[in-house]
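not sure who needs this but someone in the group chat was asking about ATP-binding cassette superfamily from Micromonas pusilla so here u go. i didnt clean anything up, its just raw.
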Amino acid sequence: MKQDFYRILQESKGQSKRLSVGIFFLFCNSVCIMLIPFYAGRMIDGVTKHLEGDSAGARRDVLDAYIGLLLVGLFGGLFQALRMYMFNTASYKVVARLRNRLFTNILAQEVGFFDSVTSGSLISRITTDTAMLKNVATQNLSMALRGMATVIIAFTFMFYTSWRLTLVVLAAFPPLIAAAIWQSRRLRVLARLTQQATAKATSVAEDSLGAIRTVRTFGQENHESSHFASSVNEALGVEMSYGRRSAIFNGCLTAGVFITLGSTFYYGSRLAIEDDLTIGELNAFILYSINASFGMALISGTYASIIQALGASTRVFDLMDRESLLPHDGVLAPDTTETGVSVELRDVHFAYPGVPDRPVLNGLSLNVPAGTCAAIVGASGAGKSTIAALVQYYYAPIKGQVFVAGVPVGEIQHEHLHSLIGVVSQEPVLFARSIRSNARFASPDATDEDIWRALEQANVADFVRDLEKGLDTWVGERGIKLSGGQKQRIAIARAVLMNPQVLLLDEATSALDAESEQLVNDALDAMMSGRNRTSIVIAHRLSTIQDADSVAVVSEGVVAEQDTHDNLMKIPDGVYANLMRRQLAGLGASTDDLPKLAQQEQKKTK
């Protein structure tokens, strides 16, 4: 626990000046608070003088005490305002820095990390957990220091007023402190469980809301509500346990404080009866004791909040300190302007991190020379999309190597590698931003003129011009305001703006209707014909396969065959020929109909 707390304070070092000034004003404010009982006691003693017949002295003492109280009120308010300003502004800066660092480190993680972590859990850490740490580092620290200052200053005045009464109060401290330490260990465990349960509920909500149309399509609103309620109730159960323990602890602590105060008042009254204390001093001591009790309650409440926040600190710091298993530490940036970019997978073995016992690739080798087009075909689950993921360095092979431009992908500088490769996938991802922002996502320096040129090439410029806000049109979350074909063409425009030397097409038109497919295919064909551009196409179109320079057939984790379409069809019992026969049988055709089918496909896309 100490280590986490010190780490939180360390994260606040950037605001040490503000916090130091805030602490100074905090102590000044605490002194002002303690002066109120002092001057109140002076007033009471002044009244006592009046009762004893010294009216002139009484009026003078009461007036002096009143002036003192006025000054205390003015300066106390000023110090309080300055304290709050310093601590609050420091807290805002601390949480902003924490969130930025955490988000940056999340983005630096390998893709495999996101396969096993929900986005809702990550969002919970970035928002809720960091906010709790902010409170520890600033607001809770402020309250704890205020409580400590109040207790220390109160005891100083108490000791000055009556050392015997002060010893009575101090006698109660050891058992109260021991109880706090004992309880804190149990509260921290519950606090960590609370954060985990809350993150789970957040993840469930994010998952359901992100797929709201699917939920509505299948009429599963009640099911999803029950699912979320179950997660919330799980979190509620842990929170109730935390609340019970915290309430019992604070109740016992409060009872101990009240018993101590009662004993103090009784003993103080005895001292006043015996003339060892004046009535004003007794009153002042009682007020000091109440303030000290308030300070202890403040420390106790803050301590409970700190314990709860430390449950979140482990989640935040574990993620903040996590190093990517696939670091972006490549430094090479090969000049491929003239030579083009070749792509090669050499004896690659691979299994996804979440299922290491189910290999996807088993010694796959594939070579795509610079400036050529390779079509990759194979049954579903054969590993076609895995090849595209490895080329982009989403994952590292278990064995073997992946080369881009003759250089292992892990040795190429991260930004340079991805500037070489443009991707258009089956499910294009658009951000909840404008069309302009989405189109130039990979090319932030692109002008509007560049964007319109790319939109023209992607066959989507006319559609964008017809929109009321044009390039400023907001596309909605994940591009929900656009059709599948429109999203796909915006994604193509994004790739066009990049002007990549390698184009990866992963089933880019398989989910589109005939009209959208025609427009997208025209855009893709224009893009693939770019000068010296290497294209890797995970294909299902006959015309694309026939036009490719080579066709690689992936089966059982290896490239079973690789040649031109015509040559592969000449292998009677070949994997490719059999695959074609099965597809043609589904269309009620045979291999003799291939030229005719390809021509029909080409006519559809013209």
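also Residues 589-595 have pLDDT under 50 and may be disordered. if thats useful
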